[in-house]
Amino acid sequence: MKKFGEIVEGYNIPVLNEREIRAAAGILFLATFISLMFILFNENFIPIKYVISFFLTDFIIRVFINPKYSPTLILARLIVQNQTPEYVGAAQKKFAWIIGFILAATMFFFFIIVNAYSAITGIICLICLIFLFFESAFGICLGCLFYPLFFKDKVQYCPGEVCEVKQKHDIQKTSGSQFLILFAFIAFIFLTVYLMNDRFSEKPHALIGNSNIEQTEQNK
What we know:
By secondary structure, the protein is mainly alpha-helical. It has helices at residues 18-42, 46-64, 71-79, 90-114, 119-138, 147-150, 176-201, 210-219, and strands at 15-17, 87-89. A two-stranded antiparallel ribbon has the order 1-2. Helix 1 (18-42) runs antiparallel to helix 2 (46-64).
């Protein structure tokens, strides 16, 4: 029952399903992001305390018992069960999840035990969101990037085969015109913010209902 990774025929090391991992990261990202919105707009810290507690519990199961029994990974498995598995090495994922466990434990200490917040908790929340977003949106495990710095053994079976040295296909290459379009779009964003900020700052009125009521009240 207590192990890390699955033994799959054709792979010489324990592996995990990257599709499940990305889906689980998306679930945790959404929960964390929504709870932070409660803090920003309502100064309500209750949701983040629940999320941190569940987050820490989930990572304790992943790291110290077995990822197979992680609630978020089980839910993720149900969501992506019809997709072909993409196997990745379990070792680097465990290292990344240890980082996640440390971050979650630190947040648990400050928010649950001490019941306080500071710039430290804000930075840690931001780091967690960045890690989860890169994993779920791009399939990039930022924690896995630090694995070779601490372990000499060669990293195997990375998502998208990024561990292997290979030549880019033509469809993966970015041309000069594409870079130019990207920079032009970034300039367009800044120009729009500069020129339209006052216009966009105006509070929208109700298209139906409230405008008629206001007009009636003005006539009275």
